[in-house]
Automatic annotation (TrEMBL):
Record domain Homing endonuclease LAGLIDADG: where: 5-75
Protein name: Homing endonuclease LAGLIDADG domain-containing protein
Any GO molecular function: endonuclease activity
Gene3D superfamilies, per the entry: Homing endonucleases (3.10.28.10)
Family annotation (Pfam families): LAGLIDADG_3
Highest taxon, organism lineage: Bacteria
Length: 296
């Protein structure tokens, strides 16, 4: 697996289809630079030449003609059309960097919204494809959900995977859009303040414990403002939760944080309240350097 192959497969999930009659893999996208990225990936991975198509009444496209390539896509069980697409097992069982590159390709069908809580979302016809993407997003540490949407015009039900508010912002940071206009809107989305005290809590530590980590201030005039006084709120019995901002301030004041708490800051690990528990079969990356962000 390479980053180029991951991008190629992700772009195929969102923008591609295969035609057995002429043994071709075809991509469509209105942004020329995106088609060139896919063309470059096809050349690097498969050593295949391809052609860009421009027709007045159709969306620009990229055609890669190869019987072996079509058979390769079938072997990976990628699906041949929108309704039967799947995330290949080679991606689901792969490394984090390849999952992110695959998501960049898949996000050619994605978008961000600034209304209400804001969200990062992708809507596809294939439920299996959305289920696979949900596994990837969950393993990236992003709280997410999916909903069915009935399109009256098409008379079809589509499935949307979304990450709302700050979780969508984090996903858009990890998975940047390849299309400049979408990335521009994603930057505006990331600049908005959605995170609340509830979503910014860090479990596993208490205020007094954090307060004790703050080093004592220096005596004399030169030590003014270096004491623990600014952190007395951590000892307030009414404060039941520790926020990320408090941990950051304590760390900036010179406190030596426990290794796990330092990782929470350095790796931008986020937490969400558990409202219900159940058994759901999820794939986990075998990459030992990929932390599980939901386990304190």
């Amino acid at each position: 697996m390479t980053n180029d192959l991951a991008l190629f497969l992700g772009a195929y999930l969102s923008e591609g289809h295969t035609t057995r009659s002429n043994w071709s893999v075809i991509f469509t996208n209105s942004v020329p630079s995106v088609l060139r990225d896919i063309q470059r990936a096809a050349s690097n991975v498969f050593g295949l030449e391809s052609r860009l198509t421009h027709q007045a009444d159709r969306c620009p496209g990229l055609v890669v003609s190869s019987k072996r390539l079509v058979e390769f896509m079938e072997m990976l069980e990628c699906g041949s059309r929108a309704s039967n697409k799947k995330v290949p097992a080679i991606i689901l069982d792969g490394r984090r960097q390849h999952a992110i590159r695959f998501m960049q390709g898949a996000a050619l069908d994605g978008y961000t919204s600034h209304s209400y809580a804001g969200k990062w979302a992708i809507c596809l016809e294939s439920r299996a494809a959305i289920d696979g993407l949900q596994d990837l997003v969950t393993n990236l540490g992003i709280v997410n959900a999916q909903i069915p949407k009935f399109n009256k015009h098409m008379q079809k039900t589509y499935f949307e995977l979304y990450a709302a508010g700050p979780w969508g912002q984090e996903l858009s940071r990890q998975v940047s859009f390849l299309e400049p206009d979408k990335e521009s809107r994603a930057v505006e989305y990331r600049d908005r303040a959605y995170r609340t005290a509830l979503t910014d809590r860090i479990p596993g530590t208490q205020g007094p414990e954090l307060y004790d980590l703050v080093p004592a201030g220096r005596s004399g005039r030169s030590g003014k403002g270096t004491g623990r006084q600014a952190f007395r709120h951590l000892c307030d019995s009414r404060s039941r939760h520790v926020t990320r901002e408090s941990v950051r301030r304590v760390h900036a004041a010179g406190a030596r944080l426990p290794a796990w708490l330092a990782d929470v800051l350095d790796l931008e690990i986020r937490f969400s309240p558990v409202l219900a528990a159940g058994v759901t079969p999820l794939r986990a990356y075998p990459d030992p350097g990929f932390p599980c962000p939901t386990a304190p």
